[in-house]
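Encode chain A's predicted structure.
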Amino acid sequence: MSSYQESEINESLAKELCSPLQGKRLLFDYGMTAIAFALAILALIPLLSVVWEILTRGLSGLKPEMFFKEVIDNGFANAIVGTLVMVAIASLISIPCGVMTGIFLSEFSQGSKIASGVRFITTILTGVPSIVVGVFAYGVIVLVQKQFSAIAGGFALAVIMLPIVVLTTEEALKLIPVPQRLASAALGGNRLQTTFRVVVAAALPGITTGVLLGVSRAAGETAPLIFTALFSQYWSEGLSSPTASLSVLIFNLYNDPSPEKTALVWTASIILLGLVLFISLLSRIFIRRKKTR
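Encoded structure for chain A:
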């Protein structure tokens, strides 16, 4: 086929694709759009009903002094601090390990058996139930220390965060075009310089988004903390002692007969929901910045 014939075919194809839809095709397009819109609303109903229930029950009991009192005094200050401390411990463990593993998979071991094995194990870890992770952390940390602690809780949350950070880091690095790597090499950059100064710097918004998604997931976990950090109605005495968290507070006090404790559960749910929403919004901001670049 000559180049003249190919250009004629391309022009006719482009003309057909750009022409407005007619008759049955237009009706089909409108029908599918309406079905997709209706199903999207149907999927949002459970989420919106949960948010509405939490807001209507918990907003009336929200008082400023709750942010400074312990759980025993109908506050949740120690639970907020405990949640942040354990998420910070988990981040300190999982973010460096996860990012470096993602860089290894994407830049230094492409096609190798080691990379395939690491990726396979990481993918399996994403599907492990969080309660199993809690039992694992109980055996590794709590049984050795012979005490529930914030360190054990942070370790369990780190195991949950790790595969999310690894896989999102690898995918973010894969999105960087190969010519960008070649340009760095042409300018004299070695492999380490190209990886850390060019590729990782360009993929930083995507990596940050993955990290924030992992933090958001860890902040809302309950089951692993029941087996590791347990709970305390008072301020924690240190990282090696039982520590309160918002998610375990909600789990423990939901069936408490005291009306004050029941109101505290719904109010704590608002705080936990707001914390997860805030982290999710941060990740969306990073994604938007990445798209606008």
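The first helix runs from residue 3 to 18.
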